[in-house]
Design a protein that fits this description.
Blueprint (H helix, E strand, L loop, with lengths): L2 E4 L4 H5 L10 E6 L3 H16 L3 E2 L8 E6 L4 H20 L4 E6 H6 L2 H5 L5 E3 L7 H9 L3 E4 L22 E5 L1 E2 L10 H5 L3 E2 L2 H13 L4 E5 L7 E2 L11 H6 L1 E2 H9 L6 E5 L8 H9 L6 E3 L7 H6 L6 H14 L4 E8 L6 H14 L3 E6 L7 H5 L6 H25 L4 E9 L6 E5 L5 E5 L8 E9 L3 E6 L1
Parallel strand pairs: 1-7, 2-3, 2-4, 4-5, 5-6, 6-7, 8-11, 11-14, 15-16, 16-17, 20-22
Antiparallel strand pairs: 9-10, 12-13, 18-19, 18-21, 19-20, 21-22
Bound molecules: S-adenosyl-L-homocysteine, iron/sulfur cluster and FE3-S4 cluster (F3S).
């Protein structure tokens, strides 16, 4: 079989192919990785449903199986490889079924994927989803189809996502794509390309449409939302005149535009970068009751030397100053973090600095990882991955244990208080209880009564488990 490679020079050839009539074909779409990937899958579904596809939850009956993949750590990639083994079986019964790999792992491995995983027919990077109908046509002729071109402009701004797999209450909305930060451990700049912001009017329109359909919470997504800047299209952020900068839309302004859609529409966002987190965003959050008082501010390490090697662009002191600003402007805000243990050359003292920073901040929640070296990153080229797996995992355990203590402590602080909760559905543990979240993102459960999804309710928390508040409607 010839490998059909769609690269810049040959794109025209593929574009010219007529898209066939695919009505009735079934698409199975599985997503891994961050919320941005899940949000991309909703774009993919929209593009293919437009072409007549229907979605199915059973991969065994699908005509097209797409896996939207993540490349952030080695184990994220292993999981996908294992999953592809399951899909192999489908090909035994249905020879014409197509298997496609989308997303970050597709972008990282490109054509290599076809050589390594012989059963994959289609490989598509995150900026090439508009080309999917063409690529499927190519693959249907028995050729392999690849498009991994990254774009400086693509934001899928005009595509209305098909909300998949959700509770009908919370929607995710991408406000930008890519990342320009080059943290030395991170593969994202290679898999998602240059940072670009999406036009604010299209964001506000999408959020408003979600509200009109009954959604009551939107989460604005980007790898570093604080560096969002809409300059009217095409203008480079680094070389703006003062006038252009004054006319540009910042993240703080965008947040307010979305918050003003309706007081009953909650606004969340992820992820903040400590180096770019300005007081303007915190002040905008404080001004609007419906902007949730929850900030995910990944620290990665508590040691300034490690942060320097990670190329994060801030020190321990800078980070703690940002924490102080949050506590000053929004004392009630919950704060969460991402932490990496065992980064190249991390000493025992530097590990202790991470623990002491955690002790100081007392995060409400944290995602914690052992460092996983990624090909092509700055760290892979410059530093040795020299902390043994044993030490990485011992340090990770220490961090997880400390965080568990802090999470429990933070949850307990919510007992005895009244929380405004957005009802998300029936509780997982009991059909007599409903569950939702407060502004700080804590899960709250309470008796069902006559409540329904999307309602707001005040709950007095009377007890808690390690991470959930339990209470009565007041
Ligand atoms: N843009 C976000 C993070 C995206 S990736 C930010 O800057 O905060 C999510 C998290 O995965 C990161 O915050 C980091 O903690 C973790 N991560 C990224 N690369 C990693 C690697 N090579 N090994 C282990 N963890 C990693
Ligand atoms: Fe990766 Fe850093 Fe960009 Fe986050 S900010 S996606 S960690 S390079
Ligand atoms: Fe993974 Fe790509 Fe997100 S690498 S974390 S899916 S941006």
């Amino acid at each position: 079989m010839e490998n059909k490679v769609i690269d810049e020079s040959r794109q025209g050839e593929a574009m010219m192919m007529e898209s066939g009539n695919n009505s009735g074909k079934k698409l199975f779409l599985e997503s891994y990785g961050c919320q941005m990937n899940f949000s991309d899958s909703e774009i993919v579904a929209s593009i293919l449903i437009d072409k007549g596809y229907t979605t199915t939850n059973d991969y065994k009956e699908a005509d097209v199986i797409f896996v939207n993949t993540c490349a952030i750590r080695e184990n994220a990639e292993s999981r996908v490889r294992q999953r592809l083994q399951d899909y192999k079986k489908v090909k035994k019964n249905n020879k014409s079924a197509l298997i496609g790999v989308l997303g970050c792992m597709a972008e990282r491995l490109k054509h290599q994927f076809l050589e390594q995983e012989k059963l994959v027919d289609i490989v598509v990077g995150p900026d090439a989803y508009r080309d999917l109908p063409n690529l499927i046509d190519v693959a249907e002729t028995g050729q392999k189809a690849v498009n991994v071109i990254l774009s400086k402009e693509e934001t899928y701004a005009d595509i209305s996502p098909v909300r998949l797999d959700n509770n009908g209450v919370s929607a995710f909305v991408s406000i930008m794509r890519g990342c320009d930060n080059m943290c030395s451990f991170c593969v994202v700049p290679f898999t998602r390309g240059r940072e670009r912001s999406r036009e604010p009017e299209t964001i506000v329109r999408e959020c408003k449409e979600a509200f009109d359909k009954g959604y009551r919470e939107v989460t604005l997504l980007g790898q570093n939302v604080n560096s969002y800047l809409w300059t009217g299209g095409g203008l480079k952020k680094e070389i703006l005149t003062e006038e252009q900068r004054n006319n540009a839309t910042t993240f703080a302004q965008l947040l307010e535009m979305v918050a003003l859609i309706h007081p009953d529409l909650r606004v969340r966002y992820s992820t903040s970068h400590p180096k770019d987190m300005g007081d303007d965003v915190l002040e905008a959050m404080a001004r609007h009751e419906n902007i949730c008082k929850y900030i995910h501010l990944p620290v990665q390490s508590g040691s300034s030397e490690v942060l320097e090697k990670m190329n994060r662009g801030y020190s321990r002191e800078w980070y703690l100053d940002r924490i102080a600003a949050i506590r000053r402007i929004m004392p009630e805000a919950a704060i969460s973090s991402d932490i990496i243990t065992g980064f190249c050359g991390e000493t025992e003292e530097q590990h202790q600095e991470t623990l002491s920073l955690m002790e100081y901040v007392k995060y409400d929640f944290a995602y914690m990882f052992a460092y996983s070296e990624r090909p092509k990153t700055l760290a892979e080229r410059k530093y040795k991955d020299d902390i043994s797996e044993d030490v990485k995992s011992r340090r990770l355990t220490e961090i997880i244990d400390l965080q568990r203590k802090h999470s429990e402590q933070r949850t307990k602080e919510g007992v005895g208080k009244i929380h405004r909760v957005l009802v998300e559905g029936i509780s997982k543990k009991s059909t007599e209880m409903m569950s939702g979240r407060n502004s700080q993102n804590s899960v709250v459960v309470f008796p069902k009564g006559n409540l329904k999804k999307g309602d707001y309710v005040n709950v007095l928390a009377t007890s808690c488990t390690s991470s959930t508040l339990i209470g009565e409607v007041v």
